[in-house]
């Protein structure tokens, strides 16, 4: 019996160790080739000579500007929809159909959202190739995930809190706003961190809606084009005319993007651990 258990333990552990080996190898490779280029000047200076020299400050700025705008556009619809499904929606076919549709949208390829954003925001709404069109497109990608996260966060709060407050005669919306939402805040923030980690690394939805590879300056106008880390890395690694010369910059940019994504991911993990200790 012990021999059989050991066999299954090692059999199931092999894929895990292979996965960890690949992750460690890729991360080490990025660090080894990206660290020599990384410096404060690289992070806070502007690109030069068609991105064969200089830094990536406009790229970082554009990525965060895009991510923040997309999150702002997706926050209110996601929060209100999550509250509706958790505490107001009836258990009927319509609710089932809506939840199924939301889950289907969560698994839809990102490039489909990019084409939809091109048709809707760039052409129909005539926003042009701009940061605004890209952020609205990314918000559509994020809303299904945030709706599900909001609903799960609200339902994770012990139902006795809700029942006790209602029994005291407190209005339903006041219970949700004053009791349920504050209790669910750590899990909500965890979902927000994971959404940021996904948003900052997406490239497909912005390919057709306003991202640019090389801009000499940054613009605060949401109606202008912008630069973004994932697209910047893609062009450096595959499309640049001096691909060997810019490869170290591509490695360093990838390392920066990996750092941002891991920071948001670790933040989400820490919040989840706090929730487990609390309950």
UniProtKB/TrEMBL annotation:
The organism's taxonomic lineage, starting at the top: Bacteria, Bacteria division WOR-3
Sorted UniProt keywords: Cell membrane, Membrane, Transmembrane, Transmembrane helix, Transport
Membrane topology reported for the UniProt record: Multi-pass membrane protein
InterPro entries the record matches: MetI-like (IPR000515), MetI-like_sf (IPR035906), Phosphate_PstA (IPR005672)
Taxonomy, superkingdom: Bacteria
Natural source organism: candidate division WOR-3 bacterium
Transmembrane segments: 7-35, 55-88, 100-121, 127-147, 187-215, 249-271
Entry keyword annotation includes Transmembrane helix: yes
Protein's UniProt name: Phosphate transport system permease protein PstA
Localization: Cell membrane
Domain ABC transmembrane type-1: 60-268
Keyword Transferase: no
GO terms for biological process, alphabetical: phosphate ion transmembrane transport
Name of the gene this protein is made from: pstA
GO molecular function: phosphate transmembrane transporter activity
Database matches in SUPFAM superfamilies: MetI-like
Family named by the database record: Belongs to the binding-protein-dependent transport system permease family. CysTW subfamily.
GO cellular component terms attached to this protein's record: plasma membrane
Record Pfam families: BPD_transp_1
